[in-house]
Amino acid sequence: MKEKILDEAERLFWKYGVRSITMDDIARRLSISKKTIYQHFTDKEDILVQATQYRMSKDQELMNCAYISAKTPIHEMLAMLDEMRKNADKMNPTLMLDIKRYYPKAWSLYTAFKEEYILKSMIDNIRRGINDGYFRGDVNPEILARMRVEQIEMAFEMTVFSDNTYDMIDIQQELTHHFVRGLLTEKGFDIYNQCNSIIQHELPK
Length: 205
Known about the structure:
Blueprint (H helix, E strand, L loop, with lengths): L1 H15 L6 H8 L3 H5 L5 H26 L3 H14 L7 H9 L1 H28 L9 H17 L10 H16 L2 H17 L3
Helix pairs in contact: 1-2, 1-4, 4-5, 4-7, 5-7, 5-9, 5-10, 7-8, 8-9
């Protein structure tokens, strides 16, 4: 039951934001009583903290799979963008802002995960791309990895693009392709163009 509650709460938080979801909403969606929820969690923030941990565990597994299955660091970056695209309809840009402003425990978990896993994975990706000749050798992996991670977060928060002219996945797509293209060598461009051609062909018309 605890895992079912976490699954449903996570879906609701991602789709509607945290502040707009109540314990009653979660209970109603699962057809259970609030008493059942309180047997496993102390309050909504406790659910959010554990749902954040749950999400980070799944994200780490997803990133590990992308690393193992990707032919090149270019494929790996574009695969992560594809995962965001597949889940775009489940994401509400207000989620990150809700957590950042009102739920410090969950935000602390996220920032630790960002520093200790996402950032390090991005640095490793860029270094492998340089070593394999796909990325330029004159770039600083630490600086660019930091910039890339902040780009992703900025698009999720929607603070810069706050007038709703563009949706979040369009912004993520533009930033990702701009970032990747700036890293590429001539050898890398050949791989990138092949990957991008396949992606564009598979996108729904």
